[in-house]
Amino acid sequence: xxWILDRHLVQRIRALARRERRRPADIxxxxxxxxxxxxxxxxxxxxxxxxxxxxxxxxxxAERSEEILRSETVPPYGxxxxxxxx
Length: 86
What we know:
Strand content: under 5%
Largest sheet: 2 strands, antiparallel
Radius of gyration: 28 Å
Helix content: 40-55%
Structural class: mainly alpha
Number of strands: 2
Order of helices and strands: HHHHEE
Low-confidence stretches: none
Number of helices: 4
Distance between the termini: 74 Å
Mean pLDDT: 81
């Protein structure tokens, strides 16, 4: 058995249970289930989801960084969209 000492919270649970014609324990169980789904995402899930987003398939990007930057910028204006006239 669990005791909820926050009277306002108990009133909210009871009101919701009455409105939905359910037992207060079912309201709490559903709330717990929703909470568990929300926090079940592992800390590494975000990193796994974004892994490879910037993959170009080219293994020499680091070696060619200066060349790539020169081809993608227009001094003194900076970055230009691909295909824009200089």
